[in-house]
């Protein structure tokens, strides 16, 4: 192990694409003016990446788990803990977490509105949160946080909890909240707790001021919760435990922050960072430089804008998002190029022509001022195919980045 | 399976590198004049190789284990058995081996000198070896061999021995030799034997002529042994068992010979073969040709010189070592080209600019007079990236070599 550098990992969400008619048969990465990315490609090592595996279309959560060096199948805790972390409700090994909706039910627990009208004031959210957070059932403690609109995250803390239970949510109105069954014998206690929680939550929620007011206004009551996406925080080593590194996440979206925190990164908030094209790229650059200059060994920077543009079928905006990220990375490297090993990539392909995640691999470039170059001259899906990294998997990125930046011990003598 | 050839595997230790200023931005492999390697690259198949895995910096022992076709993590026995084999003390499955130092202790077993002054005459080594070799404790037989200076190898033979024990060596002077604890329950017997061995060895060593003489001369006494790097010879199939081949090692360093013998190769000694640039390349070529013409199916030839030059930061000497190896391989192929499949590679990158093993992949070329060529024209880290092998792992080399040379049966019907 030689001199240690900070590993910088920039992910443009959904950046991979296919040739687009509206771009004259080029992909958005080919069409975009990206002087910094192209310089990194010319001086560094390029390749294609199947984030999960060949032919597998990654979800955002599993993709990032893989990109952080974890097995996206064996180590995947389900959406619950990742969302909970993103919402600021930290879980620990053994906890079971859910995504939650406020919902409207009648006196027989028949669902009338799965989102309870969707709109909530901060005051309403606070009252509902206070009513739910702290419930105890059979020695299991319930923690709850309201997030955006009708959404929230709910965590069960206690011994012997498992996520393998059937659904609460009937997924349509006019049907009763479902009685949960264990999907494996060990989950019997969890199923019992959740069934009782449905009853207790309804009891506590129905009489709240929020609902008296909503009844007066004729707005759907928030008198029940629907839970989904159960997941158990598994006992995997965090990045600090695994590599002895201090790792940071700079991201605008809760799921990315949540997944990063789940594996032990610290969230560094940036003023004006959002999940859209209007995110403050200057502030992200400044904060990234600051974080690299502090004692962090690894900094993950997530830019959501290319994915949004893709889902909207907006090729022009995708090109713009890529160009703005290129400029941002240029600013970062102007300040700290000699102190870093940097990788630029995406978490999956979101084809503008389809508007959804696709299985096509994404390009990746790894650069440092000492790294061996290959023959690639431009950063794109097409050019990257000729690079020295050939085809890697998402799970390979973390060792490559940490290996080159001096944070992995020699194996053997 | 068609006609059988001899698989020849040439490893230039630490040959991989990065662009070097002193070589005009070229790597040593790019800068060296290597007409033979370049011909093999032009006619054969090239690629890059992560010897252990992406981002992992290999040690010499784990790297060679992988290159011989074994899982470098699951099949790694620790340094002890590999060193013991290298020293000429062969272990068998179930044995536990250690690296050993002669040391100086006082009457309370407090360590005064961890290397007992470092210098020993052959006569002293012989007397100390005789005192230690053959000790028996609880049915466990101790075998010992003195090697270089204060160093030696020690093997425990017996039933139910395990390597998971805590350290003997306090790793500093002024501290007592440590009482060994088992790190898993099965290792309790081994810990007991080692603790008793420390006492018995001290008893046997303190009264030797060697120590009477050393006391007179005021040289530190060799009245104890410090053991480290315990490893258990695991029950893996040897190369002959696995592939039905007869395999030979031609190497100058004990560790390489040891690792090769551990997997069932026979050591073919070569007059004048050393671990430096002054090794006798002509004799190595002659002996390799002889071994290929004998009934060996696989010949591993190890050239240590490039690694030494790298650790010394000596780019010129690294280039020279590569050029001499190129010439040597030319001589070998002039004699036996039609009878072999040959692979040329390194076991890891040792960057001259850093002077240590690094995680960068190494180039590999596989040639035979029947193999399909790719578009690579020169043997180097940069050119190999465009080759038909793309990126392989160390563990892939043995099947590729033995497959092309006709020593792996068709799998299936």
What does this structure look like?
The structure is a homodimer of 413-residue chains. Chain A is of the alpha/beta class. Chain A has two domains: 6-75 and 236-404, 3-Layer(aba) Sandwich (Alkaline Phosphatase, subunit A); 82-232, no CATH class. Chain A has 13 helices and 16 strands. In chain A, the strands form three sheets. In chain A, strands 10-9-11-1-12-15-2-16 form an eight-stranded mixed beta sheet, sandwiched between helices. In chain A, strands 3, 4, 5, 6, 7 and 8 form a six-stranded antiparallel beta sheet that branches. Chain A has a two-stranded antiparallel ribbon with strand order 13-14. In chain A, helix 9 links the parallel strand 9 and strand 10 (266-267). In chain A, helix 3 packs parallel to helix 13 (394-404) and helix 10 (281-293) packs parallel to helix 12. The longest helix of chain A has 22 residues, at 315-336. The mean pLDDT of chain A is 96. The A-B interface holds A 1-3, 370-375, 386-392, 396, 398-404, 408-413 and B 18-19, 27, 48, 52-63, 65, 72-73, 76, 79, 229, 351, 353-354, 356-360, 381-382, 385-386, 390-391.
Topology:
The structure is a homodimer of 413-residue chains.
Chain A: E1 6-12, H1 28-31, H2 35-43, E2 45-50, H3 60-67, H4 79-87, E3 96-105, E4 111-113, H5 122-132, E5 136-137, E6 140-146, E7 151-157, H6 188-206, H7 209-217, E8 224-232, H8 239-243, E9 247-250, H9 254-262, E10 266-267, H10 281-293, E11 298-303, H11 305-311, H12 315-336, E12 340-346, E13 349-351, E14 356-358, E15 362-367, E16 390-393, H13 394-404
Parallel strand pairs in A: 1-11, 1-12, 2-16, 9-10, 9-11
Antiparallel strand pairs in A: 2-15, 3-4, 3-7, 3-8, 5-6, 6-7, 12-15, 13-14
Helix pairs in contact in A: 3-9, 3-13, 4-9, 10-12, 11-12
């Amino acid at each position: 192990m030689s001199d240690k550098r900070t590993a910088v990992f920039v992910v443009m969400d959904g950046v991979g694409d296919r040739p687009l008619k509206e771009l004259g048969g080029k992909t958005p990465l080919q069409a975009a003016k990206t002087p910094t990315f192209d310089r990194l490609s010319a001086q560094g090592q390029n390749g294609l990446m199947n984030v999960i595996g060949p032919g597998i279309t990654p979800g955002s959560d599993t993709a990032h788990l893989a990109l952080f060096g974890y097995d996206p199948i064996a180590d995947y805790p389900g959406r619950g803990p990742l969302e909970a972390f993103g919402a600021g409700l930290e879980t620990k090994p053994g906890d079971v977490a859910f995504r939650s909706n406020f919902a409207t039910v009648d006196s027989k627990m028949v669902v009338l509105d799965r989102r309870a009208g969707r709109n909530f004031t901060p005051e309403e959210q606070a009252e509902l949160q206070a009513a739910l957070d702290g419930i105890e059932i059979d020695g299991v403690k319930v923690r709850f946080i309201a997030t955006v609109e009708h959404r929230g995250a709910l965590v069960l803390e206690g011994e012997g909890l498992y996520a393998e239970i059937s659904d609460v949510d009937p997924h349509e109105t006019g049907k009763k909240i479902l009685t949960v069954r264990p999907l494996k014998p060990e989950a019997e206690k969890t199923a019992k707790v959740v069934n009782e929680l449905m009853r207790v939550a309804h009891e506590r929620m129905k009489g709240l001021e929020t609902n008296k007011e909503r009844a007066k206004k004729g707005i759907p009551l928030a008198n029940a919760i629907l839970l989904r996406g159960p997941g158990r925080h598994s006992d995997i080593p965090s990045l600090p435990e695994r590599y002895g590194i201090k790792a940071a996440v700079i991201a605008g979206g809760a799921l990315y922050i949540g997944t990063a925190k789940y594996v032990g990164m610290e969230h560094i908030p940036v003023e004006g960072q959002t999940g859209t094209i209007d995110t403050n790229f200057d502030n992200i650059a400044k904060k990234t430089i600051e974080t690299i200059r502090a004692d962090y060994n690894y900094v993950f920077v997530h830019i959501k804008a290319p994915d949004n543009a893709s889902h909207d079928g907006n090729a022009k905006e995708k090109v713009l998002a890529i160009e703005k990220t290129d400029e941002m990375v240029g600013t970062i490297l102007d300040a700290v190029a000699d102190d870093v090993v940097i990788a630029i990539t995406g978490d999956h392909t979101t084809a503008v022509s389809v508007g959804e995640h696709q299985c096509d691999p994404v390009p990746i470039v790894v650069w440092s001022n000492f790294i061996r170059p290959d023959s690639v001259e431009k950063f794109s899906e097409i050019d990257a195919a000729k690079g020295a990294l050939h085809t890697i998997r998402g799970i390979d990125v973390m060792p490559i980045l940490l290996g080159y930046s001096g944070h992995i011990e020699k194996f053997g003598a």
